[in-house]
Amino acid sequence: MEPLKIRTLQSIDAEPLLKFELENRQWFERHIDARSATFYSMDGVTQHIASYLSGLANGTWHPFVIEDSDGNIVGRANLKDIDRSERSAEIGYRIAESACGQGLATLAVRRLIQEARSRWNLTRLVANVYAGNMGSAKVLQRCGFSIEQVSHQKEAEDNYFFMLSINDNG
Ligand SMILES: CC(C)(COP(=O)(O)OP(=O)(O)OC[C@H]1O[C@@H](n2cnc3c(N)ncnc32)[C@H](O)[C@@H]1OP(=O)(O)O)[C@@H](O)C(=O)NCCC(=O)NCCS
Description:
By secondary structure, the protein is α+β, with helices and mostly antiparallel strands. The chain is built from five helices and seven strands; from the N terminus they run βαααβββαβαββ. The protein has helices spanning 14-23, 25-29, 42-57, 104-118, 134-142; strands at 5-8, 62-67, 73-83, 88-95, 124-130, 146-151, 159-165. The chain has a seven-stranded mixed beta sheet with strand order 1-2-3-4-5-7-6, sandwiched between helices. A hairpin with a 4-residue loop joins strand 3 and strand 4. Helix 1 (14-23) crosses helix 3. The structure holds coenzyme A. Coenzyme A binds at residues 28, 31-32, 93-95, 100-106, 127, 129, 133-136, 138-139.
């Protein structure tokens, strides 16, 4: 695999982020909820980044991007809804279709766990996965998450709720 970098999202990422999201829109929509149509423009992505960075500033969100060796964004991963009093957060991630199957999501989730522990002092991470998303379930299980429950939603796919307890020592 080419060398790559996982780093915090920045306000200057709008153009490469829009490219990444547009190129992979149909791929993502096969596995996760679709974004609104207004997201897919420079204005939409700029607002999206501003909202995520404001979440970072107030300690509720930590957005990351994965960059390949040419500086292209090939994936994203987020600590979402960080709750400092409950010491918990939800995680989310998406990898470019062309970069899948090389361990990037596994790498990103491990980085989220490390950041959750060392930067945010969290003890619990959760993730929601549609039942048909075998790749995502595999990533979570490989990173130590276990299935806590399956919710059977009417008119929707079943949803797996994953959880990881993080201890302070590693
Ligand atoms: C799910 C996703 C993040 C996985 O990314 P990735 O970088 O390919 O993940 P990894 O390479 O770290 O691991 C995926 C593993 O699942 C396996 N896998 C992928 N699809 C699979 C399937 N349909 N059935 C069984 N295993 C599958 C891969 O073979 C790999 O296992 P291996 O390393 O033992 O070969 C990526 O497919 C994606 O972004 N999908 C669209 C968005 C999404 O679903 N996000 C997650 C929402 S919960």
